[in-house]
């Protein structure tokens, strides 16, 4: 009787516990070995995106976010060695949060913006990814009131304008040392 309780209850539980411990240790070891490589790849992807909106920069230093920057929708900010800056910012679009990346040269002029993960409606809100729309921001400094929203994609294009305006405010805050 005692032997059958061991075989029916205790042994399966003990076996599964040992398997869970071995698998957990293996996953932990794998994470320790690969985490540096994963972070290096993520940094390379982020730097490539930053380079796209601020082509004159070659090295970036990520800025620690303050509550004031987070309140503006800033998810990341990086200062370039040449004095430029790249700010990732998001605001609510039609399909959820619409993240963008905004590049600024050393003088505070927008070099370029890049739409990141766009989950807006295909054929409508996705039009914010067209050069004819996002290209309007290049060369602007401080005032984006002349940027036209897209007919039929007003919510999405207004979200991009809001994000760019917030990035301009964040750029000034970071420049002041906030």
Automatic annotation (TrEMBL):
GO BP field: electron transport chain
Q: Indicate the segments forming the FMN-binding domain, all copies.
A: 93-171
One GO CC term, this protein: plasma membrane
Instruction: State the Pfam families in the record.
Output: FMN_bind (PF04205)
- State the InterPro entries in the record: FMN-bd, Ion_transpt_RnfG/RsxG
Q: Which GO terms describe its molecular function?
A: electron transfer activity; FMN binding
What keywords were assigned to this record? Electron transport, Flavoprotein, FMN, Phosphoprotein, Transport
Could you identify this protein by its name?
A: FMN-binding protein
């Amino acid at each position: 009787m005692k032997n059958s309780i061991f075989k029916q209850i205790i042994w399966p539980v003990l076996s599964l516990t040992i398997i869970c411990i071995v698998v957990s240790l293996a996953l932990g070891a794998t994470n320790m070995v690969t985490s540096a490589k994963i972070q290096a790849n993520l940094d390379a992807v982020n730097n490539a995106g930053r380079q796209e909106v601020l082509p004159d920069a070659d090295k970036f230093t990520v800025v620690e976010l303050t509550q004031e920057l987070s309140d503006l929708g800033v998810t990341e900010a990086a200062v370039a060695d040449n004095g430029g800056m790249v700010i990732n910012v998001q605001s609510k679009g039609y399909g959820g949060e619409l993240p963008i990346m905004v590049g600024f040269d050393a003088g505070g002029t927008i070099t370029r913006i890049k739409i990141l993960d766009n989950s807006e409606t295909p054929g409508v809100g996705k039009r914010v990814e067209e050069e004819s729309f996002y290209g309007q921001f290049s060369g602007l400094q401080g005032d984006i009131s002349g940027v036209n929203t897209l007919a039929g994609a007003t919510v999405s294009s207004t979200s991009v304008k809001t994000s760019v305006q917030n990035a301009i405010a964040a750029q000034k805050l970071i420049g002041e040392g906030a």
